[in-house]
Specification:
With 439 residues, the chain is mostly helical. 74% of the residues lie in helices and 2% in strands. The chain is built from 16 helices and 2 strands. It has a two-stranded antiparallel ribbon with strand order 1-2. The longest helix has 48 residues, at 247-294. It is elongated.
């Protein structure tokens, strides 16, 4: 086990060295500017001395942060394993979602899945372009890639995480529009052009709170001296990728990226739950009427069974919505609450608390494929086909192949087939796909 952990740390350090070589030219230019007055002949020696000083300062910072010594080595290994696991699961899960939709024709027919694919792409970029650099900085406790790339990385962080949150809001609004408002004309209203515009908005809107203000320095107006102090807080030449925001930017960014989508999602899912309860009651009444026509002797027992079954159906629907909203709030609420509060308390929030809140938000990119795809029956079937190399036992069965009698009901003008599964399964299948899917 320890051999595996040490190999994992070596792989992590090799990844760090690879990016260090990429930005070696930047460090050479900085050292040349500081030593230009002493002549070009001393540039190489001074660069070597600077690198030795950086190594010594890195060791000192690691000792100060408690990363050295026999007792702290397991903590560092555990941190590397945890960060690597989050990145790996996020990459694999989101890739699997994208491949499943590309290969399964039935999944491509459902318009909600286009939002899920775009969400998976945003989360994949978070796990590839944002998480690795954050993990390296968290493990080594300093930033080695220069100030310009710090701004680029921070802008990508804000852009991609905000895009992910806006996609979650669009999925909630799409389901609300399909289930609660216009179920009869949903296919005509939600045209491919409107879907494309909504997805485009999820990517364009975050640019106005990420690259534009950050690269222009609008977020640091009035707090430049605090940023410089925080960047060199240890009194050495080692630097940190510090992202501090003033009060106007903190309020604007938090409202656009979190609080408005949160309110819309709560309202949408509340209405979806009310509609799901009404549909469950209709299904229960239909089955109760069919049972009363077939058997009249067990009327009381049948009524109790139907009532308990309907309560279980409503409970499952409520649990599904609570899981979706609970995971979203649990992952992102701590960060955005801290982001708003910190400028009003003179930036006294500890760095470790910031890191914990930020990585809790990153974990949402790992959970999204599970919440919006793995819990869906059609997606699970597509995943099994991909992972099991297309075995026939996992392929979608034909509707004409079943000879069982079928029962149908009209719900908001749509015909729902009720044979072959319980009412709870029917309701959850309808809720997840926003329209009936042949099974």
């Amino acid at each position: 086990m320890w051999t595996f952990l040490r190999n994992l740390e070596k792989m992590f350090n090799s990844f760090d060295k690879m990016f260090t070589e990429m930005f070696k030219v930047k460090w050479t230019e900085v050292s040349n500017k500081n030593n230009r007055k002493q002549g070009d002949n001393f540039d190489a020696s001074l660069t070597e001395e600077d690198s030795k000083k950086k190594d010594e300062e890195e060791e000192d910072s690691e000792e100060a942060d408690g990363f050295t010594g026999g007792d702290s080595m397991p903590k560092r290994m555990a941190l590397i394993c945890f960060l690597s696991l989050v990145m790996l699961m996020s990459i694999l899960g989101n890739l699997l979602v994208m491949v499943a939709v590309c290969k399964d024709r039935q999944l491509r027919k459902i318009k909600t899945n286009y939002f899920i694919v775009s969400l998976a792409f945003a989360d994949l970029l978070v796990s590839v372009l944002v998480m690795p650099f954050g993990a390296i900085e968290l493990v080594h406790q300093h930033w080695i890639y220069g100030e310009t790339f710090c701004l680029v990385r921070t802008s990508l962080d804000v852009l991609l995480t905000t895009a992910s949150i806006l996609h979650l809001c669009c999925i909630a609004l799409d389901r609300y529009y399909a289930i609660c408002c216009q179920p009869l004309v949903y296919r005509n209203k939600m045209t491919p052009m409107r879907v494309a515009l909504m997805i485009g908005g999820c990517w364009v809107i975050p640019t106005f709170i990420s690259f534009l203000p950050i690269m222009q320095g609008w977020n640091s107006i009035g707090i430049d001296h605090l940023i410089e102090q925080r960047r060199h807080s240890d009194g050495s030449n080692s630097t940190s990728c510090v992202f501090m925001v003033n009060k106007p930017y903190a309020l604007t960014c938090s409202v656009v990226a979190f609080y408005i989508p949160l309110v819309l999602m709560v309202l949408a899912y509340q209405r979806i739950y009310v509609t799901a309860r009404a549909h469950a009651l209709q299904i229960s009444m239909l089955q109760r009427a069919g049972g009363a026509a077939g058997t009249s002797g067990a009327g009381v027992d049948s009524a109790d069974h139907q009532r308990n079954h309907r309560m279980r159906t409503e409970t499952k629907a409520a649990k599904t919505l609570c899981i979706i909203m609970g995971c979203f709030c649990l992952c992102w609420a701590p960060f955005f609450v801290t982001n708003v509060v910190d400028p009003f308390i003179d930036y006294t929030v500890p760095d470790k608390l910031w890191a914990a809140c930020l990585w809790l938000g990153y974990i949402n990119s790992m959970l999204n494929p599970i919440l919006y795809a793995f819990l869906n029956k059609s997606f699970r079937r597509a995943f099994l086909i991909i992972l099991c190399c297309g075995r026939k036992r996992y392929r979608r069965p034909s509707i004409l192949g079943s000879g069982a009698p079928c029962t149908a009901t009209q719900i908001n003008g749509s015909t729902h087939v009720l044979n072959g599964c319980s009412s709870a399964s029917k309701l959850l299948l309808w809720f997840c796909n926003t329209r009936p899917v042949p099974v």
